[in-house]
Amino acid sequence: MTTIRSRVPGADLRNLRLDLADLSSLKSSVDALEDDRLDAVVCNAGVLLDQRRRRLTSEGHELMFGTNHLGHFVLIRWLMPLLTATPASLVVTTGSFVGKSTRLDLNDLQSSRDYQPKRAYARSKLAQMLFGFELDRRLRAAGSTTLSVVNHPGGALDSLTPSRPPVHARSIGQRLRSLPAGLVLQGKEAAAWPAVRAVLDPSVHGGQMWAPRMLGFHGKPRLESLRGQLADSTLSARIWDASVDLTGVDPGSALG
Question: Which sequence spans correspond to the domains of the chain?
Fold first, then answer.
């Protein structure tokens, strides 16, 4: 907040308790907003685990799938009345480069068999991106002016992120070690550009995906074409239906 206020004096900011791993708490978090409109929400939170032990949320969902995908799915359900009450509002979903190269097992969405943490993470991000595209299809079908846009940050490393003490500080050693990676990857401030553009650029349309310009890894954001699973509307609809079954809520039910 201090950093934001240093750049935008008088910014109206506040904290909101939000635990995407606890689906039952999300309606209360949204109720705490006490607002009657919402111009944009960026679904960017998530977890990446590297332990071999498969972990679960309190509701029994695999932790990465439950947080990264199901958490946002339920959050948008409760935010939908605010979003649809706001003309030209936006849902911006942040996926991942690795999500484009994995495949979902519709019979084992939560990786209960042959659990591999990196693969489970990739699957959770693919599900999240498919949700973003399916959400836009349903918004268009309902005649809503709310748009759903997907972005991914490419490759981003803390060691390439400019120092911003006390939140983040880089040592000289970190800077030197990160030089080779800087040819392909970028810092996390640059990784945020696709999401920022999706929110602020008036030329952005629903159903699009924005990503770094250079091979999808780094650089200024550009519009990226949809291929393979990301363009599969049947798969997206099946993920939506499975998510409704797993959570007991349907974001589409708020569209009328």
Answer: 30-152+206-214+226-255
